[in-house]
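Render this sequence as a predicted structure.
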Amino acid sequence: MKKELLKHLVVIRGGGDISTGIAITLWRVGYHVLLLEQARPTSLRREASFADCVYSGEKTVERVTCRCAASFAEARELLKTQGIAMLVDPIGRVIHKLKGCILVDAVNDGAVRENKWPLSFSIGLGEGFCAGQDVDCVVELVRSFEMGKVIKEGRTQKLEQRNAQPSETDCIMMSPVEGVFAAKRTIGAIIKTGDPVGEVIDDKSVVYIITSPCDGILRGLIHDGNRVAQGQDIAEVDMRVTPRQCARVADRARAVAGGVLEAVLRFEGGRWN
């Protein structure tokens, strides 16, 4: 009789739409997953992101519910009973208490290089990590033939610089100034060119109306009341999706989740080298 493989706890830094796709995939095949987020997440695609449970207490995406714990003790209980939880811990302090966990880092802030976390295995997402140096492997994020590929040495492709001008499929709106964002529409709304989606109020109480440069569905919108920096992404209108699809895991997140699952299974199955 074959010995059952040990399923490590997986910690994911970041709770955006890609991290959420990874968390759901791992949870569905039996892993316990702890997501770590900042106190005021800035994820745009909030209807498809567990990050939003920091504001609401819990978030359900594709029938999987993640709850935000108020403490490490509560997070441990949620992991025992639900198998998935979120904790506000942007710099990963809790990781020192979780000996032998697997880390999936989607934050790219250098913390994985600076902290000597007691990890069994580490996976970085995107170009901010170097496989074989910062982490054990990286997973390709760029939408290309190799999206979701597991890379054991070196870096992934560089993400293209976002352009404020609309593309053939979507458009991103950025804050013109530093200030506080106030939403005027909700995710899933049908948007026409010129429609206001929100406003940014600067420190002198000057109001800047944010209008859409294209038609489509409002797929992404930063949480109401967040303080934003000049040039920060605050809204996304997409011409490819339906309102219902705004709350579902997207193709890119599924591809990256597949790469993460492959890496985890290869490591736990003794087939990494």
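Summary. Residues 1-5 have pLDDT under 50 and may be disordered. The chain has five helices and 17 strands.
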